[in-house]
Amino acid sequence: MASSSRLSPPKVPMELHVKNREKLLKSLRQHLTETSRPLYGFVLLQGGEEKTRYCTDHIELFRQESYFAYLFGVKEPGFYGAIDIATGKSILFVPRLPADYAVWLGEIKPLSCFQQQYMVSMVHYTDEIVGVLHELSNVLEKPLLFLLHGLNTDSNNFSKPAEFEGIEKFEKDLTTLHPILTECRVLKSDMELALIQFANDISSEAHVEVMRKSRVGMEEYQLESIFLHHTYMYGGCRHCSYTCVCATGRK
User: What is the pTM of this model?
Assistant: First the structure.
Protein backbone atom coordinates (compact mmCIF):
# COMPACT_ATOMS: atom_id res chain seq x y z
CA MET A 1 0.00 0.00 0.00
CA ALA A 2 1.26 3.47 -0.86
CA SER A 3 2.35 5.76 1.91
CA SER A 4 -0.38 8.14 3.05
CA SER A 5 1.91 11.11 2.41
CA ARG A 6 1.84 10.28 -1.30
CA LEU A 7 -1.91 10.64 -1.42
CA SER A 8 -4.01 13.78 -1.54
CA PRO A 9 -5.74 14.59 1.76
CA PRO A 10 -9.34 13.32 1.59
CA LYS A 11 -12.13 15.84 1.75
CA VAL A 12 -14.69 15.19 4.43
CA PRO A 13 -17.86 14.40 2.44
CA MET A 14 -20.98 16.18 3.61
CA GLU A 15 -22.87 12.97 2.90
CA LEU A 16 -21.20 11.65 6.05
CA HIS A 17 -22.99 14.25 8.18
CA VAL A 18 -26.28 13.66 6.37
CA LYS A 19 -26.01 9.98 7.31
CA ASN A 20 -25.09 10.92 10.89
CA ARG A 21 -28.27 12.99 11.16
CA GLU A 22 -30.32 10.14 9.71
CA LYS A 23 -28.75 7.75 12.21
CA LEU A 24 -29.61 10.01 15.15
CA LEU A 25 -33.15 10.57 13.88
CA LYS A 26 -33.76 6.83 13.58
CA SER A 27 -32.43 6.14 17.10
CA LEU A 28 -34.33 9.04 18.66
CA ARG A 29 -37.61 8.10 16.98
CA GLN A 30 -37.18 4.51 18.12
CA HIS A 31 -36.59 5.66 21.71
CA LEU A 32 -39.64 7.94 21.67
CA THR A 33 -41.82 5.18 20.26
CA GLU A 34 -40.63 2.66 22.87
CA THR A 35 -41.36 5.13 25.68
CA SER A 36 -44.81 5.97 24.25
CA ARG A 37 -43.91 9.57 23.45
CA PRO A 38 -45.05 11.47 20.34
CA LEU A 39 -42.64 11.94 17.42
CA TYR A 40 -42.42 15.72 17.51
CA GLY A 41 -40.01 18.41 18.65
CA PHE A 42 -36.61 19.60 17.52
CA VAL A 43 -33.08 18.48 18.25
CA LEU A 44 -31.20 21.75 18.76
CA LEU A 45 -27.44 22.08 19.11
CA GLN A 46 -25.30 25.17 19.48
CA GLY A 47 -21.99 25.23 17.63
CA GLY A 48 -18.73 26.54 19.01
CA GLU A 49 -18.01 30.22 19.56
CA GLU A 50 -14.91 32.16 18.55
CA LYS A 51 -12.84 33.18 21.59
CA THR A 52 -10.16 35.77 22.20
CA ARG A 53 -7.11 35.25 24.36
CA TYR A 54 -8.18 36.74 27.68
CA CYS A 55 -8.70 40.52 27.23
CA THR A 56 -6.70 40.84 24.00
CA ASP A 57 -8.01 40.99 20.43
CA HIS A 58 -6.07 37.83 19.50
CA ILE A 59 -8.51 35.17 18.26
CA GLU A 60 -7.55 31.65 19.26
CA LEU A 61 -7.58 28.86 16.68
CA PHE A 62 -11.22 27.82 16.35
CA ARG A 63 -12.19 24.19 16.93
CA GLN A 64 -15.81 23.23 16.35
CA GLU A 65 -17.86 21.70 19.18
CA SER A 66 -17.59 17.95 18.67
CA TYR A 67 -21.26 16.92 18.72
CA PHE A 68 -22.13 19.79 16.38
CA ALA A 69 -19.32 18.81 14.02
CA TYR A 70 -20.59 15.23 14.00
CA LEU A 71 -24.10 16.20 12.92
CA PHE A 72 -23.50 19.20 10.65
CA GLY A 73 -19.83 19.40 9.64
CA VAL A 74 -19.87 23.20 9.94
CA LYS A 75 -16.43 24.82 10.05
CA GLU A 76 -17.46 28.36 11.03
CA PRO A 77 -18.26 29.62 14.56
CA GLY A 78 -21.54 31.00 15.84
CA PHE A 79 -23.94 28.55 14.15
CA TYR A 80 -26.91 26.61 15.53
CA GLY A 81 -28.32 23.43 14.02
CA ALA A 82 -31.75 21.83 14.36
CA ILE A 83 -33.46 18.63 13.21
CA ASP A 84 -37.24 18.41 13.00
CA ILE A 85 -38.11 15.00 14.47
CA ALA A 86 -41.49 14.84 12.72
CA THR A 87 -40.27 15.59 9.19
CA GLY A 88 -36.54 14.86 9.36
CA LYS A 89 -35.72 18.30 7.97
CA SER A 90 -32.40 19.82 9.00
CA ILE A 91 -31.99 23.54 9.64
CA LEU A 92 -28.85 25.63 10.06
CA PHE A 93 -28.97 29.03 11.74
CA VAL A 94 -26.21 31.37 10.58
CA PRO A 95 -24.96 34.48 12.41
CA ARG A 96 -26.07 37.70 10.72
CA LEU A 97 -22.79 39.47 9.96
CA PRO A 98 -22.41 43.27 9.82
CA ALA A 99 -21.50 44.88 6.49
CA ASP A 100 -18.00 45.85 7.68
CA TYR A 101 -17.17 42.14 8.10
CA ALA A 102 -16.45 42.09 4.36
CA VAL A 103 -13.79 44.80 4.71
CA TRP A 104 -11.59 42.66 6.96
CA LEU A 105 -12.58 39.05 6.38
CA GLY A 106 -13.96 38.85 2.86
CA GLU A 107 -17.25 38.07 1.17
CA ILE A 108 -20.37 37.59 3.27
CA LYS A 109 -21.88 34.40 1.88
CA PRO A 110 -25.61 34.20 1.13
CA LEU A 111 -27.76 31.67 2.98
CA SER A 112 -28.08 29.56 -0.18
CA CYS A 113 -24.32 29.00 -0.14
CA PHE A 114 -24.46 27.38 3.32
CA GLN A 115 -27.48 25.29 2.35
CA GLN A 116 -25.63 23.87 -0.63
CA GLN A 117 -22.29 23.48 1.14
CA TYR A 118 -23.64 21.69 4.22
CA MET A 119 -26.48 19.78 2.53
CA VAL A 120 -29.26 20.85 4.90
CA SER A 121 -32.96 21.37 4.19
CA MET A 122 -33.01 25.08 5.00
CA VAL A 123 -30.88 27.92 6.38
CA HIS A 124 -31.94 30.97 8.39
CA TYR A 125 -30.24 33.55 10.60
CA THR A 126 -29.68 32.96 14.31
CA ASP A 127 -31.96 35.87 15.23
CA GLU A 128 -34.79 33.96 13.52
CA ILE A 129 -34.61 30.76 15.60
CA VAL A 130 -37.76 31.44 17.61
CA GLY A 131 -39.92 32.39 14.64
CA VAL A 132 -38.72 29.60 12.36
CA LEU A 133 -39.13 26.79 14.90
CA HIS A 134 -42.55 28.04 15.99
CA GLU A 135 -43.67 28.17 12.37
CA LEU A 136 -42.40 24.66 11.66
CA SER A 137 -44.12 23.29 14.77
CA ASN A 138 -47.51 24.50 13.49
CA VAL A 139 -50.06 24.52 16.33
CA LEU A 140 -47.81 23.89 19.33
CA GLU A 141 -47.78 26.88 21.70
CA LYS A 142 -44.40 25.94 23.19
CA PRO A 143 -42.49 23.59 20.86
CA LEU A 144 -40.27 20.97 22.48
CA LEU A 145 -36.49 21.25 22.19
CA PHE A 146 -34.22 18.25 22.79
CA LEU A 147 -31.07 19.92 24.10
CA LEU A 148 -27.64 18.42 24.63
CA HIS A 149 -26.82 18.06 28.31
CA GLY A 150 -24.86 15.21 29.87
CA LEU A 151 -21.66 14.26 31.66
CA ASN A 152 -18.46 13.44 29.82
CA THR A 153 -16.99 10.79 32.12
CA ASP A 154 -13.45 11.41 30.82
CA SER A 155 -13.33 15.14 31.54
CA ASN A 156 -16.07 15.23 34.22
CA ASN A 157 -17.48 18.23 32.36
CA PHE A 158 -21.06 18.59 31.17
CA SER A 159 -22.12 19.29 27.61
CA LYS A 160 -23.52 22.80 27.33
CA PRO A 161 -27.16 22.95 26.18
CA ALA A 162 -27.99 25.51 23.51
CA GLU A 163 -28.87 29.00 24.68
CA PHE A 164 -30.45 31.81 22.68
CA GLU A 165 -32.70 34.82 23.17
CA GLY A 166 -36.30 33.63 23.43
CA ILE A 167 -35.60 30.08 24.61
CA GLU A 168 -38.20 30.57 27.36
CA LYS A 169 -40.83 30.23 24.62
CA PHE A 170 -40.00 26.52 24.30
CA GLU A 171 -40.33 23.38 26.39
CA LYS A 172 -36.93 21.83 27.11
CA ASP A 173 -35.85 18.20 27.39
CA LEU A 174 -32.35 17.95 28.87
CA THR A 175 -32.11 14.20 29.46
CA THR A 176 -33.08 12.34 26.28
CA LEU A 177 -30.63 13.53 23.62
CA HIS A 178 -27.19 13.11 25.19
CA PRO A 179 -27.06 9.32 25.70
CA ILE A 180 -28.63 8.62 22.30
CA LEU A 181 -26.33 10.97 20.37
CA THR A 182 -23.28 9.74 22.28
CA GLU A 183 -24.12 6.14 21.38
CA CYS A 184 -24.46 7.17 17.72
CA ARG A 185 -20.95 8.66 17.80
CA VAL A 186 -19.45 5.53 19.34
CA LEU A 187 -20.38 3.30 16.39
CA LYS A 188 -18.40 4.44 13.34
CA SER A 189 -19.47 4.18 9.71
CA ASP A 190 -17.09 3.05 6.95
CA MET A 191 -16.60 6.69 5.85
CA GLU A 192 -15.69 7.72 9.38
CA LEU A 193 -13.27 4.83 9.75
CA ALA A 194 -11.53 5.73 6.48
CA LEU A 195 -10.97 9.33 7.60
CA ILE A 196 -9.78 8.28 11.04
CA GLN A 197 -7.37 5.83 9.41
CA PHE A 198 -5.95 8.58 7.19
CA ALA A 199 -5.42 10.94 10.15
CA ASN A 200 -3.76 8.16 12.15
CA ASP A 201 -1.50 7.27 9.21
CA ILE A 202 -0.37 10.88 8.81
CA SER A 203 0.22 11.23 12.54
CA SER A 204 2.30 8.03 12.60
CA GLU A 205 4.35 9.17 9.60
CA ALA A 206 4.96 12.53 11.28
CA HIS A 207 6.26 10.82 14.44
CA VAL A 208 8.62 8.72 12.32
CA GLU A 209 9.78 11.87 10.54
CA VAL A 210 10.57 13.50 13.89
CA MET A 211 12.66 10.48 14.95
CA ARG A 212 14.44 10.42 11.57
CA LYS A 213 15.42 14.10 11.65
CA SER A 214 16.06 14.57 15.37
CA ARG A 215 19.61 15.39 16.44
CA VAL A 216 21.34 15.73 19.80
CA GLY A 217 20.82 19.21 21.16
CA MET A 218 17.61 20.00 19.29
CA GLU A 219 14.89 21.79 21.24
CA GLU A 220 11.36 20.47 21.68
CA TYR A 221 9.88 23.30 19.58
CA GLN A 222 12.13 22.28 16.69
CA LEU A 223 10.86 18.70 16.86
CA GLU A 224 7.30 19.99 17.07
CA SER A 225 7.94 22.05 13.94
CA ILE A 226 9.01 18.93 12.03
CA PHE A 227 5.88 17.11 13.17
CA LEU A 228 3.54 19.97 12.25
CA HIS A 229 5.20 20.52 8.88
CA HIS A 230 4.58 16.89 7.91
CA THR A 231 0.93 16.91 8.99
CA TYR A 232 0.30 20.26 7.26
CA MET A 233 2.27 19.52 4.09
CA TYR A 234 1.26 15.94 3.40
CA GLY A 235 -1.89 15.39 5.39
CA GLY A 236 -3.72 18.67 5.11
CA CYS A 237 -4.35 18.36 8.87
CA ARG A 238 -4.00 21.49 10.94
CA HIS A 239 -3.82 19.16 13.92
CA CYS A 240 -2.78 15.54 13.56
CA SER A 241 -6.29 14.53 14.65
CA TYR A 242 -8.20 17.35 12.94
CA THR A 243 -9.54 15.14 10.18
CA CYS A 244 -11.00 12.83 12.85
CA VAL A 245 -12.62 15.78 14.60
CA CYS A 246 -14.22 17.13 11.43
CA ALA A 247 -15.45 13.75 10.32
CA THR A 248 -16.67 12.20 13.52
CA GLY A 249 -16.83 14.83 16.19
CA ARG A 250 -14.19 12.94 18.16
CA LYS A 251 -11.10 14.64 19.56
Answer: 0.90
